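Before we proceed, please read the two lines closing this message. Report back on whether the C-alpha cells fit the sequence:
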Amino acid sequence: MSKEKIKYGIIGSSGRLGSEVKNIFNEAEYDLAFQFDIDNEILLDKPDLLIDCSLPVVFEKTLAFQDKFKSPLIIATTGLSDQQMQLLKDLSIKYPVVQSYNYSTGIQVLLKLAEIAYGKLNDWDIEISETHHRFKKDKPSGTAKMIQDVIKGKSVNISSLRLGNVAGDHTISFGGLGEVLSITHSATSRRTFAEGILKSANFIINKKNGFYSFTDVIFNN
C-alpha cells in the first residue's frame, strides 16, 4: 500500500501530540479518515491504521474503536497499567500493534548507549533524571522507566521534575569515585515524536500480527 493512499485515524486529536501528528501526516500526504477527542468525533472513512495519543482513561475507547475498524494500532499513550499492557499484547495476536512511551529516534540511541555503558560500569552509582511540562500526568515518565529497564538486576533511582512547557529531557548518569559519565537526550519539539509515529505507520502498515516496539521500528525495519 503506498503512503498516498493510507487513511489514518487518531484518538486524542486535539492534544499537544495529536495536533503535531496531524501536521506531520498532512505533510506526508496521508488522509485523515477519523478523529476523536473528548468533545469531538468525526468519521470520514474507515482508517487503515489507528493512532492513540490520548490518556490511559481513554484506553477502553481505543480498544472499542480498534475493534470497530479492525486496523493496526500505534499507541503513544503513557502511564498504561500492567493490565492495559496485557490487553495490548492480547490484541497483537490478531492485529499488528506498535507500543512505545517515546517515539524519539534519539531516545532509542540513548537506550543502546546506556546498555553499552552499563555493561562496563555496572558497579558504579547510577541515577536517572527526567523533566517534563507541568501538564504531564504520569511520574516518573514512561521513557525513564524504559531507561531503567536497560539496567537489569540493579535498583536505579529516578528523579522527576514537572516544569513549564518542557517537551522532555532525560539523563542517565554513571558515577565512579573519580569520574561521572552522563548521557542526555533533550526533545526540543514534539515534532520529533510525531515523526517517530510516522515512521511507525510506514513500518506497521504491511506487518504481520504481533507486538512491536519503537526499537523494532528503528533497528529492525
Notes: The domain at 105-186 is CATH 3.30.360.10 (Dihydrodipicolinate Reductase; domain 2). The helical segments are 16-27, 59-69, 82-91, 105-121, 142-150, 191-204, 214-219.
